[in-house]
């Protein structure tokens, strides 16, 4: 069966996403209020980081997260320099991802799936790598629990496509469980010498 074909689990998965994200938004509302206050005090406005990202079939949506970096200026020219201590903490604990539950509730994303990357990467993928867009992008995914930003781009895309082909309830539950473990350990937050991950320039020849 082609990964583009609708699977019975896809309907169940979407229902789970709606319920889980709605409950998550309610439960984490007090935490998000505190984080918003801290971000406002340390980074100023805007509190939220918004950026277009490609979703399922490459359709672009607006990703929402808590802001972890200072505005670019002559003093802070690289992402690593703009990333604050508070920002590092928010990223390492994944607290910056909490507003992304809105994206899940709206249907832009799923709890589990390939992470949504930058729009400018769309024409840099090989046909096989581009298959990562056959499903909704996720808050967490197979690559995130198998090395996160410590992986090479090529290894991450292999895992993304593996998820597209093998997605199912047991795999999603396993990924969610391993995500909780990864957040506690705070492993693979960034690649060596980078704020998160170096830019994807295209497939290795």
3D structure, described in words:
This protein is mainly α. It has one domain (8-185). The chain contains 7 helices and 4 strands; from the N terminus they run ααββαααββαα. It has helices spanning 8-27, 29-43, 79-82, 85-93, 101-106, 153-166, 169-185; strands at residues 48-54, 60-66, 110-112, 138-140. The protein has a two-stranded antiparallel ribbon. A hairpin with a 5-residue loop joins strand 1 and strand 2 (60-66). The chain is globular. The two termini are 30 Å apart.
Short description:
It contains 7 helices and 4 strands, in the order ααββαααββαα. The protein has helices spanning 8-27, 29-43, 79-82, 85-93, 101-106, 153-166, 169-185, and strands spanning 48-54, 60-66, 110-112, 138-140.
What number of domains? Answer: 1
Task: Encode the helix/strand succession as letters.
Answer: HHEEHHHEEHH
Radius of gyration: 17 Å
> How many E strands?
4
> In percent, how much strand structure appears in the residues?
5-15%
Identify the strand order in the major beta sheet: 1-2
Key terms:
two-stranded parallel sheet; two-stranded antiparallel sheet; mainly alpha; single chain; 7 helices; 205 residues; globular
């Amino acid at each position: 069966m082609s990964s583009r074909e609708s699977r019975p689990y896809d309907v169940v998965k979407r229902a789970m996403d709606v319920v889980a994200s709605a409950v998550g938004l309610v439960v984490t509302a007090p935490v998000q209020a505190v984080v918003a206050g801290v971000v406002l005090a340390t980074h100023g406005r805007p509190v939220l980081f918004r950026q277009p990202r490609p979703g399922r079939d490459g359709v672009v949506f607006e990703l929402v997260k808590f802001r972890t970096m200072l505005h670019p200026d002559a003093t802070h020219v690289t992402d690593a320099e703009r990333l604050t201590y508070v920002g590092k903490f928010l990223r390492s604990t994944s607290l910056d991802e909490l507003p992304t539950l809105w994206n899940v509730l709206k249907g832009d994303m799923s709890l589990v799936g390939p992470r949504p990357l930058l729009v400018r990467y769309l024409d840099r993928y090989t046909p096989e790598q581009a298959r990562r867009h056959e499903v909704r992008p996720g808050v967490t995914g197979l690559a995130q629990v198998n090395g996160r930003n410590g992986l090479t781009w090529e290894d991450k895309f292999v895992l993304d496509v593996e998820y597209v082909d093998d997605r199912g309830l047991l795999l999603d539950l396993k990924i969610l469980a391993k995500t909780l473990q990864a957040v506690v350990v705070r492993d693979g937050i960034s690649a060596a010498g980078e704020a998160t991950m170096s830019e994807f320039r295209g497939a290795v020849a």
